[in-house]
Amino acid sequence: IMRVDIGPLKGKILEVSGVINNSVILVTPRLASYCGFSMKIDPLGDAIVYASLQNCFALNVEDKVFKTVLNLRLYGNQMVEDELYQVAETCYYTDWAAREIICDRNYMEASERTSRLVHLMSLQKREGKMDQLLQNKGFKITKVVFFTPEERIMEVTEAQRAGYEIANTPTRLTLRSSKTAPETYIQQVKGVNMIVLKTSTVFEKKWQMTQIDAAAACPIQQGSISFTPYTIIWFLPKFIEPLISTNQPRLLEVFVGIDGHRLSPAEIAARGYAITVTDLHIIVHIPVGAVGGYFKDDQPFKTYTIEPMLELLWTEGTTLENTRYKVLFPITIPVPQIVDNTVAKERIFKVLLGPFGDDVALINITFPSGVLSAADCNVRGFNVQEHRSHNGSLKFLTLQVPFTDRLVLGNGYTVYSLHMTFGLMAALAGPFSFTARLEAQLLDISCDHANFYVLVKYGTHGAQFQTLLGKRTLSPDLAQQYNARENGTHFSVTVPFSAPDVVFEVRGSSIRSRLDVTLRNPQTGRHVKDFALTCQFYSTLTECFPNGTITTVAVKVESVPSLNPGQLTLRDPNCGPRFSDDRFAYFVFTANSCGTKRKVLLNTLLLRHILKVRVICYYVVNTTYALTFHTRARRSQPYAEAAKGKLQIAMRLALDDTYSAFHQDEDYPLTKFLQEPLYFEVELMTLTNPHVSLELENCWATVDKDGTSQPRWNLIINGCVNPVDPHQVVFHSVWVDARVKYPSHHKRFEVRTFSFMKDQDTMSPQVLSTNVRAQVSNMRLAKKKSINKKIRKNIKKNRNHK
């Protein structure tokens, strides 16, 4: 192959013409594939013209010297004169193999040695004209047989009119075809799709006939390329079956190049390329962004293009006739990226990841607190979906994570962030990962996962108005309950979703919370302003536990004011609510009780219960959960720092798992039902050192207020859950928010309410009404690379449960 470098074009259009016998012939796209020309132009405006040594315009001297003359015309707008250059290139090539095969961008070429014939006739076509040079004892080409793979016979003129170049010299026969010619076909070779052209050219003279077989096979990108965001992997069959005639091929040489230029081993190493030869394939690894390629901001995504070359030399059997195979293989891949489609007011992180090759699959996603499989993410409601491009060659992934999920970091009010690493697997390239860091900021807040936030700006009336929340006037006591604040220009209140002033309504298939706010003139009673805030009801209505326990909450909505939640039952009329009030009914039942139905869908067990609305739980059968961890060797042995001082530690009971509000002293004793969750928080008070960490060593529950009394049930042992506890403690993460400045000073855990048995020996089912007090002791303060002395502390506040 001859290469001509041209540039920069400076925005002008390049036109290439061939010069032969004082005639100038424009190289059109059709003529380029017929005559053996191709061209590449990069984003910088540099062009490379490739031409086969045996192109239509080459002056061939004894198959050793090849001279080609080209006219290059650069033209732009009519105001600037065209630029015209003539380039003459002479190439010397004597190291011919018995068979030479070229795969270029737009054509494929096979050149066969004709030593089996004494003499041949030379046939050449020049832009529709046939020059027949009868010589050397009268042999001439009469027909060409194409195998598609069925036989199809064409006369020579017919084949040339169809776009096939058929030419011969005294020593070689050359056959050239467009890659899109009708007589080509696709064949999969060792898993790689290849365009194949197989022919037999017939030579005749009086009473004599002979033929020469010629074949070419060129790879296409789909099926031979695998890529990740970091690496391109190109697979080429080690032995290309359509070109092999014996069962004893032997590979002699392998060369790698870029843009038609061979690279030395030192250049390959310097560019970070790698080549591997296996029993089946020759595999080339190219880093994305490596020297020799370029990025381009195409729509709808960024691409990376590079044109590697492979040159092989093999021999077959004992014939000692070699085959040289050269393929120039332009590769363009989309660069995978993360697109953040989050709309903050929707309170959902929306992520698009891709594009990837069609052999890529999502394995798992790693979050700061653990690893979830793709199936786990969907069970959790993350809506992981796979999408394909219109031709099916590219794949995209989408993910949606609600701001309310515990994996989302934030202050619970305005700023939310999500960190995750996608673990993916390419069938050819192997595993790789992709990391995303997303952040969303809410500027106009109306509600989050737990509260309504009402912010009122004073207008011309100043603060001379009454505020009604729902149907109640905002009295001083109610203002204190709702954390009212005022600064002279604004006032604000925070109203929990569970507050009695909030009503619930059905919108489509979802339940939403609504808070009506009215500003009223106290003298006239006229409404100055009224509005309503409506937000998604974020509380979990149904929970499905691994042991088969199911809990569900029935909510009284505004449209049925006469409903008494305490009179609701499950399918079995004997299964009433475990707890109810005038707004909620809380049910606890098991998968085999209260008329629950079961159904197996593939590897998923479906449990369904009808309570005028359906309660559905899905359990994955025979699933495997992945767990990752990292270890790091100690740099030094831990040491203790002795010190004296007073520390203040407090334990509180939160209203729910948001830990945004806590029970006050006057709330005790509390009435709780069995298995109802209790949310504890232990805090190291007053200390401002962020490097100090509060650790819980032992926590237990007793019947009496005396923490040393018996019976006693251990909840936390040496910092870990009690392994024999049927309802083990659940630890909750602590993040920075408006209240928590140092997360390491806080520990949070969840305990399911339980009772001690009245008769431990007989395990009588009778349950005692007890005062259960949670004790926390042996709290440890840990400093980086050190552990302070252990401090015992009894929490003096009673926690009464039923």
Neighbour order of strands in the largest sheet: 15-16-10-9-29-28-22-23
CATH superfamily of the largest domain: Zona pellucida, ZP-C domain
Radius of gyration: 40 Å
CATH fold descriptor of the largest domain: Immunoglobulin-like
What can be said about the biggest beta sheet?
Answer: 8 strands, mixed
CATH architecture annotation of the largest domain: Sandwich
Helical content class = under 10%
Mean pLDDT, as a whole number?
Answer: 81
| Low-confidence parts | 116-136, 760-802
Number of strands: 65
Query: Which secondary-structure class do the elements indicate?
Result: mainly beta
CATH class of the largest domain: Mainly Beta
Number of helices: 5
| Beta-strand residue percentage | over 45%
User: What is the terminal separation in angstroms?
Assistant: 89 Å
Shape: elongated
Number of discrete domains: 6
Task: Describe the model.
With 802 residues, the protein is mainly beta. It has 6 domains: 2-92, no CATH class; 99-116 and 138-218, Immunoglobulin-like, CATH 2.60.40; 221-334; 337-438, Immunoglobulin-like (Sandwich), CATH 2.60.40; 445-536; 649-757 and 765-796, Immunoglobulin-like, CATH 2.60.40. The chain is 4% helix and 49% strand. It is built from 5 helices and 65 strands. The strands form 16 sheets. The chain has an 8-stranded mixed β-sheet with strand order 15-16-10-9-29-28-22-23. β18 and β19 form a beta hairpin. Keywords: Disulfide bond.
What is the gist of this entry?
With about 800 residues, this protein is mostly beta strands. The protein is built from five helices and 65 strands.
